[in-house]
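TICKET: design request
STATUS: open
ATTACHED STRUCTURE:
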């Protein structure tokens, strides 16, 4: 059976999926990302994992035809180069070339959040939606803009960086160099930090734990949660006015709070819109498998594009 390998490289874990043409997942695997050992070690581990996945496919009587790799940061998708990733420490890493040389497969490189958006578009919560925004809220915040089953990368590979919309001008500094960015107020890391600031040392909790305290009526948790929702609503109002999406699919660890997040966010967003129609807000369906599934879909798209090109050449 023909198959494609999808590999999602995160700051903590590399996740993989081998899929059939109909999207069926035939095999999954994961390995830690050795980012503490430096960018070169991460790249070597990625390439080694890709090679091992080709052997795993063969062992299962599968024929790997292509390999998709999803990575964070700024990506030159056409050139197959990971231009910059703060989390993984690399600059101008020629990932497509390195993986292709080791696996002897056609390789495509994509952005991790856009790959997740592609997966949610085709096999997740965005099925049937012509235009929507995928918004994973985790340690950071980014988004994927999905149009007719394809994701928008932008002229320089930076489309969808909604986490760096300024929602509080002159507010708290952001690692990006600006101040008042959405990510400073509404990411999982910032929610945890702002809660700890109110309670002092020893009160560190995850965003999921804080969401549970919101349900229980914890005053400080409710205050921090409300501030995050207000910031998200301000950002989504800008996104709505600019893009007019019919749907926003919210994922990541904060998105896992479900209606504890979505119900007040719907109300807050609607209150900020005057002439624009608010999009539907729903929870993502694919969890942390979205990136690897999306990477595999990129691989299938690569094969489809190549087949169309061959067909066009034969007819000309």
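STATUS: resolved
RESOLUTION: sequence designed for all positions
ATTACHED SEQUENCE:
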């Amino acid at each position: 059976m023909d198959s494609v390998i999808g590999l999602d490289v995160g700051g903590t874990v590399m996740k993989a999926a081998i899929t059939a043409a109909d999207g069926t997942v035939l095999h999954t695997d994961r390995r830690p990302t050795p980012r503490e050992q430096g960018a070169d070690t991460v790249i070597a581990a990625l390439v080694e994992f890709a090679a091992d996945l080709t052997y795993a496919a063969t062992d299962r009587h599968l024929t790997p035809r292509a390999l998709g790799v999803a990575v964070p940061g700024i990506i030159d998708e056409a050139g197959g180069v990971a231009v910059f990733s703060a989390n993984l420490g690399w600059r101008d890493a020629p990932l497509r070339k390195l993986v292709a040389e080791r696996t002897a497969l056609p390789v495509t490189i994509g952005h991790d959040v856009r790959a997740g958006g592609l997966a949610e578009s085709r096999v997740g919560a965005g099925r049937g939606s012509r235009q929507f925004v995928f918004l994973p809220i985790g340690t950071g915040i980014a988004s994927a803009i999905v149009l007719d089953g394809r994701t928008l990368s932008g002229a320089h590979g930076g489309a969808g960086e909604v986490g760096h919309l300024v929602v509080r001008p002159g507010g708290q500094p952001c690692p990006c160099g600006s101040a008042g960015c959405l990510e400073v107020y509404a990411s999982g890391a910032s929610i945890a930090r702002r809660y700890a600031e109110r309670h002092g040392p020893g009160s560190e909790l995850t965003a999921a734990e804080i969401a549970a305290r919101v349900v229980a009526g914890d005053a400080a948790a409710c205050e921090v949660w409300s501030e995050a929702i207000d910031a998200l609503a301000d950002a989504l109002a800008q996104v709505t006015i600019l893009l007019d999406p019919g749907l926003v699919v919210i994922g990541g660890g904060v998105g896992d709070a479900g209606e504890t997040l979505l119900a007040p966010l719907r109300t807050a967003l609607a209150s900020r819109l005057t002439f624009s129609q608010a999009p539907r807000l729903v929870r993502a369906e694919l969890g942390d498998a979205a990136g690897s599934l999306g990477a595999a879909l990129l691989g299938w798209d690569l094969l489809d594009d190549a087949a169309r090109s061959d067909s066009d050449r034969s007819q000309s």
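CLOSING REMARK: DSSP finds ten helices and 13 strands in the chain. The CA atoms of residues 3 and 21 lie 7 Å apart.
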